[in-house]
Amino acid sequence: MLAHREFLGAVASRAGLDHPDAAKRPAESVLVGVARRLDDSGRNSLGAALPTQLATLVCESTPLLRNEGKTPFLQTVASELDASPERARFFAQAVLSALAEQDPSTAEAVRGGLPEDFLDLFAAPGDGPPPDRAATAALPEPTDLTAGEVSAALAGLPGWTGDDHALERTVILPPGIGQELRDRISRVQQEMNHHAMVEERGDGTVFRVWTHARGVVTDLDVELARRISEVIED
User: Fold this and answer.
1) Domain check: are 82 and 152 in the same one?
2) pLDDT tens track for 32-74
3) pTM, to two decimals
4) Radius of gyration from C-alpha coordinates of the chain
5) Pairwise CA distance, residues 107 & 30, whole Å
6) Same domain for 115 and 178?
7) Of residues 61, 49, 168, 160, the one with CA closest to residue 109
8) Are 47 and 168 in contact (CB under 8 A)?
9) Using CA atoms, how far apart are residues 142 and 61, in angstroms rounded to an integer?
10) Which of 123, 95, 125, 87 minimizes the C-alpha distance to 35?
11) Staple partner for 153: which of 20, 63, 222, 227, CB 3.0–4.6 Å?
């Protein structure tokens, strides 16, 4: 079993983070995202190799209805960490390359259970700080919204529900153009440097937005919800 502090330290070092504690959320997001794409045996094997805190999250993760590729994985990581897809990729490489160095046999087994396009994520990221660090620091701070302000915003966002913690909309994407719409939404998210959590469920595609670093809805989330609706309804 990997040592918790040592593993987070290795991730932090690869990701250019200042402290092992800063690597906790990236490690959780990446490993749970990977675990959801493994079968029961692969998920349990990964969990058995990880420190207890990470192992619990991995073993209790819900398998995806279908095994999605690398792009949706990075989009989910980006959403959960409130980062760009490029930075999410950087974090994924930091986590998975640390796993490969500290437990090569487990990393090899995990690689074998993932789609082929995940292979390059097990290589260590390049030198330097994570992408977008300087750009993110220069962005204006979003404004937290009160419950009343969120309620007022929802009145102008047909199809969206939620409260001051998150906004959510479920849609059935038209056959044949669903991927095109996802790509357009991804471009909107990159322009805003803000990302929705996207999940495929039995009743459709769920878009969920909130400002992860704060755990609340901000004006940035309302704007992202509005622009997602524009793409869907175009």
Assistant:
1) no
2) 999 999 999 999 999 999 999 899 999 999 898 776 788 889 9
3) 0.58
4) 18
5) 13
6) no
7) 49
8) no
9) 31
10) 95
11) 222
User: In this structure, are 110 and 149 located in the same domain?
Assistant: no
Same domain, 174 and 197: yes
pLDDT tens digits, 188-197 = 887 887 888 8
CATH number where 178 lies: 3.30.1360.20
Residue length, the chain?
234
Which residue range(s) make up the domain with 162?
139-233
Residue 15 binned pLDDT confidence (cut-offs 50, 70, 90): confident
CA dist., res. 226 & res. 126, Å (int): 36
Residue carrying structure tokens 């796993």: 99
Give me the mean pLDDT over the 146-173 stretch.
94
Q: Is 186 helix (H, G, I), strand (E, B) or coil?
A: helix
Most confident of 26-40, 63-77, 135-149, 175-189: 26-40
Phi and psi, residue 20, nearest 5°? -55, -35
Last residue of some domain: 115, 135, 155?
135
Helix (H, G, I), strand (E, B) or coil at 198: strand
**φ, ψ of residue 17 in degrees (nearest 5):** -90, 155
The contacts of residue 144 (CB under 8 Å, 6+ apart) are: 211, 214, 216, 217, 218
What's the CATH number where 112 sits? 1.10.490.110
Non-local (6+) Cβ contacts of 226 within 8 A are 156, 157
